[in-house]
Amino acid sequence: MTTSRALGDRRVRRTQKALQRALIELVEERDLSRLSVADVAERAGVSRSTFYDHYRDVHELAEAACTVMIDELIGSVPGPGTDATRDAPGKLLAFFTTLAEHAGLYRALLGPSGSARVIDHIRRRATAAGHAGARQAAGESAPDGDPHDVPAAFAAGALVGVAADWLERGCPRTPAEMADLTWPLFVALYRPL
Amino acid sequence: MTTSRALGDRRVRRTQKALQRALIELVEERDLSRLSVADVAERAGVSRSTFYDHYRDVHELAEAACTVMIDELIGSVPGPGTDATRDAPGKLLAFFTTLAEHAGLYRALLGPSGSARVIDHIRRRATAAGHAGARQAAGESAPDGDPHDVPAAFAAGALVGVAADWLERGCPRTPAEMADLTWPLFVALYRPL
DNA sequence: AAACGTAACCTACATATGGAGGAAAACCTA
DNA sequence: TAGGTTTTCCTCCATATGTAGGTTACGTTT
């Protein structure tokens, strides 16, 4: 049992990376719900008890495993201002491209036998990013602590919804087509009545 | 072990209802991830093996337990045509009101320790409903088999996103306020450029 | 009311979970 | 390189999961 969780230690980084890689590999092979901790640990070349030294369950590992990718992904969320929406089409294209590159992984994580933990993580990040974009566009600099921003939550949910739907159907369109279809919907949100 | 699954039998309905009630009760008390099958079965006054006669796991039960509520809820999804959007404000109000009535349940199911199964179910239903509404509004009667409708997926995800965000924050606004804030966003989606 | 069908229950079992304590190995610092 | 520190691993253990077979009790049907 450990208390300090020193990230500087080479062993920790090595172990966590191995577990994250193993999970990503396995999730592309079989259903998340059919993955045991023992499976992941074995694939990572790590003991089962070491797994529990780092993560409470498979979902927590899954969240950690795609946090980096998700943060890149979330750079693509269009915010509700001119500033943020300026280069948004390119960002949306990047979003769907990245998604397509890891289609198996994200389909497994966002689908019915996926992880509510991961879904919530993505939605939350996207909401925060959308809100930050809006604040920036409105010229507000006050760092208000994550208030209730309905349009941001709306856009974030929409992004997740479009992604999950597209992945579930086996990516029937190219990332470019998806970006072209989705972009006007985001634009419409931020157009005055 | 049974094979025919006769729904006409009084015992089946009784058992399933008891399990669904028990799950709803328990999910309001503690986290879904902390619920064991034994807990649910005991609360329902049913043996653990009977649980497995009806559901494969807790998530499948959760999905079944709120299917009826969800179907009522989904009646509130605005579709992209004039027909569907006509009475949509009232439907949105109903949506948020119902959500608030079962806030504990839905917060638990849609949040980070919730059920991807339930989330996916809701999103799927809402997408299908949105698509049906759009088809109806466009005067199309051909029963095409659930094609890729990006705006419908967008709106469905947005609805889930707004709901999850609102519930996670402890419902900081009234259902009426939420309906008023959300309604123009849906309208914007279906307004021509 | 009797007979049939099936749901509910019980027992048993192999596996998975989650955690505790302690020994060994690897790391960082001096 | 010697020191102490922290991680990893091993072994247990109590509980939970998921499945199977057989028995009892209930509901439906005639």
Q: Main interface pair?
A: A-B, 43 and 43 residues
Number of structural units classed as domains of chain A: 2
Helix/strand structural class of chain A: mainly alpha
Question: What's the SSE pattern of chain A?
Answer: HHHHHHHHHHH
The number of helices of chain A is 11
Mean pLDDT of chain A: 88
Helix percentage range of chain A: 55-70%
Strand content of chain A: under 5%
Distance between the termini of chain A: 58 Å
Question: What is the subunit organization of this protein?
Answer: homodimer
Major beta sheet summary of chain A: none
Integer-rounded radius of gyration of chain A: 18 Å
Overall form of chain A: globular
Q: Low-confidence parts of chain A lasting 5 or more residues at pLDDT below 50?
A: none
**Total strand count of chain A, please?**
0
InterPro entries (chains A, B): Homeodomain-like_sf, HTH-type_Tx_Regulator, HTH_TetR, TetR_C_Firmicutes
DNA-binding region (chains A, B): 36-55
Protein name (chains A, B): AcrR family transcriptional regulator
Keywords (chains A, B): DNA-binding
